């Protein structure tokens, strides 16, 4: 249910090109063939009563409220299950129908609590509406017969409850869980009067339910209802905004009372999510008002001093003075900034502008450095632009999904559900992943092939797939001849044909069966439309950029680029990774991926900004940290990032931060990096922001303020005012003016403005004269760079090798309920699904070491040691262990190495050689961490007061 109703057409749209024309209540209407009579009627603006139908799921025909009469036909068929036919004449309102409908309603109401006035759904209940619509005035059966009024509610889910006494057994919830979410957690058990909605276990919390809320949205009564609505009452107004978690970028409707969010409902008009959401976006927004939030600026002279709460003026004066003093002492390039993929484009734009125009250097980098920087590099090299090629809806035309190093049902759940829908319609799936992710086998979905390769061997496997396609004559020569650089293709063909790239040669290194590699290659090459989807399992390797180019080569080789249903699609981790890269957060690139060394491009910025700019590329995050340890990089402004937790080799990061004279952290919470900060500037949550995010499909989505900044200052203003104090005034009066500047200076955004986004909805860049309404699919007809460029993808194995001392490979990932370093999700009820990070280990490796599930184990690498609880599972292969990094005390990055992608320095998080042994004590790092954290918490409480 939702406050702001959009029209519910009762049954889903039908895509048929053929149409039929019929008459309903005297209105003539033409609809696509296969459309239900109910949808046709509602399209004509007519109301047909209904309870069990809603347009996000297929019709079921159980409530018998939508009956109609059709001339020439006997009986009263249900309009939701009857297809419209050419020439039909239909009546939806007759005395006979009215009587029948009242009879149906009488039955429902005789087994329903008569507590409308005190019910949480009062005013937002379809049963109540239908009682009114059908003119129900009495219930002849009385209320004394057998009923379910005493059934007990299930309150086990932290976010919603199930009250069976109000259930009308319409099965909308069951069908939503099946068709929208694809989890199949619910069934209707029993028959007739006995039928009830059931989970597979005794309650929702312990069941397969992933808490997406699709059933709650679909329920027409108060049976499935958000606890916040039950506790706080119905919301009063709606603000449309965008989820601030993953790169799917779901559109949400924040429903508010006063300035309190009562519930978050997925927006049916959202072009990325079409009315679906996941447990994070739908429910986990409570962190925004969590007591741990720091709302006042704070300063301290040394990191050993206690924090002192100060006014914004004093904090910004101190920050400006300290940065200027650092530059004066150590030079112009001794300071820099880090932008955040959690912040809006407008906030990111100002931080990179601060570095370039105010600091006078290019020392700006972003957290994409540690996740998708190889995507930017690899796709730019081969296709000419640093972004995914398709929109999400493209998958509806895909016949084969090649999923590499990505776990969409956990990390990108709404797109994961869409993927499941397509797979259930018959598309085939190949999974390349060291771990058995859910999509390998889940209800009604089974991958054709799962290639559980050894971590670190993506490149030989993609080369072997390409080798097979070339060797077996499966390449799309017509596409290559027309669209690709032929000289580069010839050179690449000679390379890929080499024996070392054959499946037989790479089988041992990758741990895969060569015949399976060949079969997967044939399947990919023979599909009419094959699409590659990939994640951090591709990029976070020392050969991340090589692998991205390997996938781009593969798509060109088979002609799978430049139309719907195909492409190379990076699944972006954070909400605005794409945007933070687009906004010029890289030290060598100005916004729009244009080199800082290009005099012509720089001149346009210099003219607009009225200041000279440095044409020399700046330092990346790893360089800043290395130089900080060396003592030449001394000051940093970090907006919305927690490098002390998220970056590899924690000891090194901590040493670097400790060695700086001025560390400024801007964040919601006193994060791990704040332990080393001198100035803390409180940040704002997405509920307080005015701006835009860009999702994984290049979609520019509006983020609208639901409440005023709790800190008293919009985050972009903080950056602007810091710049003012450092001598470069930034004159903006609203965030929309920053977007105007972005559009003015970035050709791919030329047609973007808040006004257009508000009027026309989200748009996918490029939005310019050539594509005034945006670009859902790129590289149609021609690549952005002209001809597609095959790049050689020589396999250079990582230096991180196993040996007798470190015989296992540790790889990492995420789980559904948590998000990245967990700063947000750990401060919500989502914590109930995951209280700590676990180490997955195969039964044979566990047995060898005497380890059982639940035992504490030491995980030691060449870099450090941490202690985790073991989860013995055959999801991972022998020789591979796996963990998540959502809890700082796990210290996952204490053990990861400083090895990184050769082209972009993206850290090699996915491959660390480790030994695992039973342990009965915490690691030294964990002891120190927990001691300082307790101290931090004490300060946090004081500061938050
Ligand atoms: S819980 Fe709601 S949606 Fe599910 S069967 Fe009952 S009334 Fe229908
Ligand atoms: S919350 Fe989602 S997963 Fe859980 S039962 Fe409802 S629809 Fe299914
Ligand atoms: S799928 Fe991603 S963007 Fe959508 S609601 Fe979930 S976390 Fe938010
Ligand atoms: S709405 Fe058609 S039978 Fe229920």
Automatic annotation (TrEMBL):
Supply one GO BP term: formate metabolic process
What are the UniProt keywords, alphabetically?
Answer: 2Fe-2S, 4Fe-4S, Iron, Iron-sulfur, Metal-binding, Oxidoreductase, Repeat
The cross-references to SMART domains, in alphabetical order and at most eight, read: Molybdop_Fe4S4 (SM00926), NADH-G_4Fe-4S_3 (SM00929)
Q: Which InterPro entries match?
A: 2Fe-2S_ferredoxin-like_sf, 2Fe-2S_ferredoxin-type, 4Fe4S_Fe-S-bd, 4Fe4S_Fe_S_CS, Asp_de-COase-like_dom_sf, Formate_Dh-H_N, Formate_DH_asu, MoPterin_dinucl-bd_dom
Instruction: Read off the Gene3D superfamilies from this record.
Output: 2.40.40.20, 3.10.20.740, 3.30.70.20, 3.40.50.740, ADC-like domains, Dimethylsulfoxide Reductase, domain 2
All copies of domain 4Fe-4S Mo/W bis-MGD-type, residue ranges: 236-292
PANTHER family assigned: FORMATE DEHYDROGENASE H, RESPIRATORY NITRATE REDUCTASE
Give the family from UniProt. Answer: Belongs to the complex I 75 kDa subunit family.
Question: What's the name of the protein?
Answer: Formate dehydrogenase subunit alpha
Organism for this UniProt entry: Kordiimonas sediminis
